[in-house]
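Appendix B. Chain record.
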Amino acid sequence: MKTDAALPAALGSDALCTAEEAALKSRLMPGGTPVARDTALLLLRSELGGVQARVQRAFEARELLGLAAARQLSAHMDALILSIHAYALATIPRGFRDKPEPFALIATGGYGRSVLAPYSDIDLLFLSPSSPGTRTTRVVEFMLYLLWDLGLKVGHATRSVKDCLAHARKDLTIQTALVDGRFLGGDEPTWTKFNTEFAKMRAKDGLGPFLTGKRAERAARHARYGETPFMVEPHLKEGRGGLRDLQTLYWLSRHAFNTCGLHELVGENSPGGGLLTEGEARAFRRAWDFLWTIRFHLHYVTGRAEERMTFDLQPVLAARMGYTRHGPQDGAERFMKHLFLTSREVLRLTRVLEPALERAALGPPARRREGDANLQKEGLALADGKLVAAPPDRDFAQEPILMLRIMRAARDRALDIHPLAIRALIRQSRKVEQLRGEEEANAIFLDLLTGKDSPKWLGLMNETGFLSRFMPDWARIVGLMQFDTYHVFTVDEHTIQAIGVLQQLEAHQLDQIAPVASELIGQLQSRRALYVATLLHDIAKGRGGDHSELGARLAQEICPKLGMSPEETETVSWLVLHHLLISQTAFRRDIEDPKTVLDIADIIQSPERLRLLLVLTVCDMRAVGPKVWNGWKATLLREVYWRVSEVLAGGLTVPERDVRVARAKEAAAEQLTMSAWSQKDLDHFLSLGYSGYWLSFDAETHARHASIVREAEAEKAPLTVRSAVLRSRAVTEITVYALDHPGLFSRISGALAVAGATIVDARIHTLTNSMALDTFWVQDSSGGPFDQPHRLAKLSVLIEQALNGKLKLTQEIRKVRREPARLRAVTVPPRVVVDNHASNTHTVIEVNGRDRPGLLHDVTAAISRHGFQIASAHITTYGVRAVDVFYVKDNFGLKVENERKLGPLRSSLLEALTPPEMVEV
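Structure tokens predicted for this chain:
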């Protein structure tokens, strides 16, 4: 690839600008006489289109990287704007009484830095020595209208030197734009005067106020766009570790030393005395070029000033930049990992350069160092009240263990680590390799992992590169994303978030959200093993194969190196192997089926492991993203825990099923007796349900069902629909009581989809009177209860219309199939698994496919067409992936094991899972 050192015709940017400007001026003003405005506009449009097309062709042909293309586009724009400036001056006559009014034409903002993205704003300052007069105003307006008519977005200001200085002092944004100021044309003495005064103002104010303001601005920006750079849909420009963070370093160095680039800070003779090493300067140039290249592709692909890396754009950008599948990772994942590692490099450069700039501009470090005897014994000291390695003979390069000691001391003493010490952590990260397997290092690392504020210290270790050097397998998951809409963070950031949830549980901050896990956390005997298992639970992602199995083997290798005992190693390995067991059981299996509970109990075997596994599951789920955890999922996890706990305590065996049914009937009878039910009505209701029904609900739900049944029988109603908002579970329960017939479940599912309800679970029961009692738990699109009265009323009407045939489900579902365009790129291959071992009484069918409104209707309709009866459905979504599990029997009430019946069913289900055309929004 060529850079800006190899522009066409061997011209640099200045020469290119001059040649183009001269040619364009001769066409706009042949013989010195300006052409008509309409003619000029046509010429300028042709020139602008040609310029943009040439840069795009060169860039997409990989003749230019992003930064070189940005500079070349800026140079072309210089020629265009200077030609417009000359044309405006020639076109607008000076009146008889007009005094000469020189003004300077200044480029500011990104354009002032001589870089321009294809659809970025062009920021211009019209600078006059004093208040602009009539002709100046007319020339400025003439230029602006021409630029606007060309379709350019122009940010502009017309000010005097005095006003500019006043605004710069009051407004940080204006001051920043002026720091980027670059003279284009016009009256250069005016610009020189301003520049001199502006430099004096900055020198008088010092870097301090500007630095404080930029830090506050950056903090607000990060709060808006994400405190971590490891978001799977990052904002390229404003996000943490993005272009704006790099620009902030440029602004600080320019404000402090009037440099034109960070390369000027390399070497002992540079401003500040060599604030950057040559390697750091190269890293800066690589990051700057890589981010600018992505930005150009983003603009060209979208045709607008788009800066957000949405899912639909990531595969396109990856392909344009030459990323292809490599092993288990596809091109988009490899491309995004490169981006995340670059963002981390930007964070590290900020940690290195910013404190050095501050010190160089504001004065040398405080010479007074202090610390007590214990601190000195650790090889540490205080500078400005912050921790550093004790001078002059203690440093991280000679004693890498000081890197861990300084973090432990900072935590224990509630002190900050000095920015210069953090810079040393980054620069000496290679020395961390010497600490592997070292006893003191292991002890301090595990102490930091399991102690107060561990996510903070893990985040620092990850950002500085310490963690990847100390634990090489960690490096494989840094910046690793999964191309789906379920996970919000990269794998390394998700893991650190999970450690944070574990600490929240221990601090009783989640007592209302996860009460069982919060109670169990204090009963654990293997606390250290739990922390390490949380750290390692996803360590094998991105390697291909089952990451749980691979991770368990890695844990057996890593734990002894961390100084853990054989017993702890076994526990960690087991937890990593089975860390998905409880969630998959809760969301994909019928926990009322005794075999389900007995199978999981047989794997877990001990109450301590059950407690550990539940806590790890809660941490893993809550760390995925803010919308994953809800009250319904919490309820299901609790149910699994209590059922398995009962088995491990010896309280449940298969023969006891009848006992549990009898207890459920007794509890329901007690509830109904309190409501003054007669014995006759009570006996009638208790005779209606088969064993599966009594084991599927609690007594309160049985009582609700009893009321529905009695009311329907009294009114001889063929259909009854009732809803109950269960806020503690974050769901709305929809109960349908109707005459059973094939396809009933499918029709109800379709009506719920048309109503906009999301089904999270379902139970289907046929009673002894041949009536169906189907129960659905639904949520709205935000993951809360479907509770708006008018929507519930409409839902009941839609169910009735669907069952009597008045509602054309296929057509209506097609109308509600809407999907954000950014999600279309995420593919979910359809998959059907038939399992005749998970249950003794039912065939279990698991379908995986892309979620959409009406998916459950399509799938269950296919099951019904083949003559299978659905006993229960378990609905789970992971972003755009739906994983639905059905317990079915044939018409004779038996499991389906004949492959001649299962084969056609698989084909129909795969067809139902194939996404129809979706409407983009």
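Further analysis of this model is presented in Appendix C.
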